[in-house]
Amino acid sequence: MQKGEYLSLHRRCIVFDAHNDLLHAVLSKQRQMVQRQEMGHSDIPRLLEGGVTAQVFALFIPTDELPSGPLRYTLHLMDAFYEALDKAAERLLLARTAADIRRAKEEGKLAAILSMEGAEGIEEDLTVLKMLYRLGLRMLGITWSRRNKAADGVSDEGPDEGLTDFGRELVAELNRLGIIIDVSHLAPKGVADVLEASQHPVVASHSNAYALCPHYRNLTDEQIRAIADKGGVIGVTFVPRFLTTGPADASLEHVLDHIDHIIRVAGVDHVGIGSDFEGFSDPSPKGLEDVTCFPNITKGLLERGYSEDVVEKILGGNFLRVFEEVVG
């Protein structure tokens, strides 16, 4: 396939990556967001070079930051984003609506979407959630892998008891505000409870198919179907140990395999991309070394026989549809 053939399609598409941990890297590793760097997977110049239109930036709170205040750390992450926005307004915008994402595409900018990874950051206060919404929060993962006041994380060693009373209140308020609910990292009973309780589509921003790689962070076919039945989307992630039982050999082909599988289970309207770039330390999958490699996904999908319309859905159309339905 000629490079110009797939690059032309890639550049026309809205490319939506549903998970990236660059903000945490900026705080914890003194990384730069605005300037191009050789380290790590991403920065604004490389995201634009890779043709990314919409990037979800996670507000992730490390466990060792919980004692000093999860809301405090969340605000520091938001401040790091707003500093980047001040420095790079000609290349970056904060997406509060789907129209902002489309505007970013038209203007050649990166649309940034803020997502909280684990509800600890609202400190059991729905007024805090409302204020974070005003600051631009548009997605929230109920848990990271640990237990919190809303539900059990998928790595927690205690019983999986699903949503707590506060968790159910949280789901209702997320629906009311128009914040997308993310079930990646959530234990199975919690996933089922969220799908039952939510009035809106739900996403798994960065999870793969358990049938292909039996890792506890991946989704069973039953969970994939349930998310699809709710109108949601699963973002296939690049984390090597979620792609294959031989993570040292992970490659673009494994990513495409997981996309193929989710389509077989749930159809073409319910799969997207959630790279988790900056969120893993293992070597990146071959062919997806950093965000500049995103066009390789387009090439790979076309080579597997997908039509341009379906490729457009996978690259970003499906996540954009959910964003527009839930957020507006």
Shape: globular
The CATH architecture category equals Alpha-Beta Barrel
CATH class: Alpha Beta
Proportion of residues in helical segments: 40-55%
Unreliable spans:
none
Distance between the termini: 38 Å
The CATH topology is TIM Barrel
Largest sheet: 9 strands, parallel
What is the average per-residue confidence, as pLDDT, rounded to a whole number?
A: 97
| Radius of gyration, in angstroms, nearest whole number | 18 Å
Q: What is the number of E strands?
A: 9
Summarize the helix and strand pattern as letters: HEHHEHEHEHEHEHEHEHHEHH
What does this structure look like?
- The chain is an alpha/beta fold.
- Helices cover 43% and strands 12% of the residues.
- The chain is built from 13 helices and nine strands.
- Strands 1, 2, 3, 4, 5, 6, 7, 8 and 9 form a nine-stranded parallel beta sheet that branches.
- Helix 5 (98-107) links the parallel strand 3 (92-94) and strand 4 (110-117).
- The longest helix has 19 residues, at 308-326.
- The model has no long low-confidence stretch (mean pLDDT 97).
Describe this protein with a few key phrases.
single chain, 328 residues, TIM Barrel, nine-stranded parallel β-sheet
How is the secondary structure organized here?
Blueprint: H1 3-12, E1 16-20, H2 22-29, H3 44-49, E2 54-60, H4 70-87, E3 92-94, H5 98-107, E4 110-117, H6 126-134, E5 137-141, H7 165-177, E6 180-182, H8 188-197, E7 202-204, H9 221-229, E8 233-236, H10 240-243, H11 252-266, E9 271-273, H12 295-303, H13 308-326
Parallel strand pairs: 1-2, 2-4, 3-4, 4-5, 5-6, 6-7, 7-8, 8-9
Helix pairs in contact: 1-12, 2-4, 6-7, 11-12
